[in-house]
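quick one before i forget lol
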Amino acid sequence: MAEMSDDDILAELGVDLAPKKVRARTPREERVIAGFEDIVKFREEHGRVPQHGEDRDIFERLYAVRLDRLRAQPEFHVLLADIDVHGLLEGVDDNATPVEALDDSDLLAELAVEAGPEANITQLRNVRSNAERKAAEEIATAKRCEDFETFRPLFEKVQADLEDGIRASRRFGRDASIDVRDFFILRGQLAYVAEIIGEPIKAANGQNDARLRVIYSNGTESDLLRWSLQRALYKDEGGRRISEPTAGPLFAAVSDVADECDYLPTGTLYVLRSRSTHPTIAAHRNLIHKIGITGGSVETRIAGAADDTTFLLADVEIVATYKLFDVDRPALERLIHRVLDSVRFDAEIPDRFGKMSRPREWFLVPLGVIDQIVDRIGDGSLTGMKYDREAARLVPQDPH
């Protein structure tokens, strides 16, 4: 018997050696498959099919519309049969809008997505990329916060503190810890960690994790893992931690700053007295003070004071300086000037060309009160205060 080759043996066994032709898919079919895979992933992650509704996430609504369209087009059922492991194409949502009555532009318009001339359910315009969508999924699907009114005053207070310089926003990363009652800025929204839900969770890397209830300033909330929130804050270029009012030495005497390397120096608050010989200024020299903030050295700031109307066209004496750390200089300066607005030294000074100028940073206030202001900024209690010129002391500001 002649020796048989491998091909002869396979032929005897009925194995067809001819290569099978694989029909190449069109770009449209590839997009349909990719789009349906997103729907299958949603079903596996959430345990339900995507649903319509204005209260739903934009991507869930997109998936719901896409699924409606695919159900209504039998030609895609065969194409998707192998990956339709949950029988999604066989189901019918009784609450769905009849897709036969809508074209692609109408469907996308319902989702506030602008459709171009070639728009169809597998090509979405003006929607976040896959990378952005995955990042959004990391912070879970937000839902309406039913008891948001309980948290609203907290957000309003933090926002006011930021504007007044009592709190600062810092790039997330230097301190990656996340605890209950912490505030952050995530994707343009203030986020507040309200509570830990349930028991600690052991993460895949062996470290402990926990599910958090996070409230957002837009009235929504989400429950997500601490690690997911950390990663979202890292990836968000605008991700910020909001400091506590007493966190770190917002102020410290320049000669007595400890552990400066732990904080970001952002400038110096200075208190000056004028050496002007003008009778009014000379008579009240110990009461008239200029209070300002500079990002450079105070000595450089006051150089040439005798020729600058900002300094009353006279040399000045440096009374006190305080180094600032992790604060918004302009916001802090506005806060101080607002507190002392009732005793602003209102004077018109002609410059060397005869043009009248009104310096805005001089105040008729004792040095002791300035020290109190500095102390209150340090402990976060200056917001809502004002200087009462009659009582010569700081008092709570009338909210009305």
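fyi The first helix runs from residue 6 to 12.
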